[in-house]
Amino acid sequence: MKNDITMKRFLTILLSVTTILSLWAVEPTEDMRQKASNYYAYPLERSEVPELTPAPKGYEPFHIEHYGRHGSRWHIGQKAYNKPVEILEIAERNKQLTPRGEELLAQLRELQQAAIGRDGELSPLGAIQHRGIARRMVHNFPEVFADSGYVTARSSTVVRCILSMDNELQEMLAYNPALRITSDASEADMDYIARNDTTGMEPGAWYRTSQKIEQLMRDYSKEHPDSYDFIDVIIKYPQFARDSLPVANLFHYLYNVAANAQSLDRSQFPNFAPTTSLRLRRWRIAGAPRIRAGFCVLATASSPRAYARWRRAICCATSLRAPIRQ
């Protein structure tokens, strides 16, 4: 009975997200999904796995090291779901919502309620992603997972990361129940799993870097203004929106809610804005200032935190050895 209730609740969530996105229905493309930036869902669930480079002649895989980020998740912080509702309620109280605006607000309220207690939690898609990672490792390197091989797993102490690890391990056991697996999630390992401190930096250096990024984002926004014409679809009188609503903030919150929708449902794309230019602008604002500030490994990591973000990118290394001849 409890499982039935949970499934019905999740289906309601998906229905809410689907309705929000269908206000401006656009056929999803990979390019559009990628413009969700940090919320871009792991792509290998909907595309072919790249062909692997074969091992050199005379060698075979015997060891794998995998370092991965957690799977797709709910937004961190209820604010992400509360703010767009609060802003649109200003228009509702003043009877300024169009029929589409009313429908959008109703669905945002449903999603807001569904998100209560889900702060940053792993979504069902996130679990599927990590089972897929394990499945590909086992399929591509069966020699490593044969017989009663050893698997050692470590996670950060965040629940979504622990569950991501657990889903990978469960998938491996389904392939070979004889595997000898040990797992742990401890503060003792956090220094190398998710190094996120400012050790070795000059006093105030991280603060200055953060301020620099924020200023660059403000400057970039001014350099690339937009009309935010999406507001005409949900608000009756544009002048009311300009005078009474924080339109730029509303766009930010709506974009993020829609962008992360792909974390909840693989078949949907985060698209609430009627223009491609708005999606492109938001994507640029999310990334360009950080790269200018050196907040990206491509521009050399300027702090331990920047380096940690790079390290959290999914990576996997396979060791090779020549088989022992009898």
Describe this structure in words.
With 326 residues, this protein is mainly alpha-helical. Helices cover 50% and strands 8% of the residues. The termini are far apart. Residues 5-26, 266-271 and 289-316 have low confidence and may be disordered.
Distance between the amino and carboxyl termini: 58 Å
Radius of gyration: 23 Å
- Helix-strand string: HHEHHHEHEHHHHHHHE
Low-confidence stretches: 5-26, 266-271, 289-316
Question: Number of helical runs?
Answer: 13
Write down the overall geometry.
elongated
Number of strands: 4
Side by side, the strands of the main sheet go 1-4
Average pLDDT: 75
Classify the secondary structure makeup into a structural class: mainly alpha
Largest sheet: 2 strands, antiparallel
Helix proportion of residues, in percent? 40-55%
What percent of residues are in strands?
5-15%
Itemize the secondary structure elements and their pairings.
Layout (H helix, E strand, L loop, with lengths): L1 H21 L7 H5 L25 E8 L11 H15 L5 H16 L9 H17 L9 E6 L3 H17 L4 E6 L4 H4 L11 H19 L7 H4 L3 H7 L2 H13 L16 H17 L11 H8 L3 E7 L5
Parallel strand pairs: 2-3
Antiparallel strand pairs: 1-4
Helix pairs in contact: 1-4, 3-4, 3-11, 5-6, 8-12
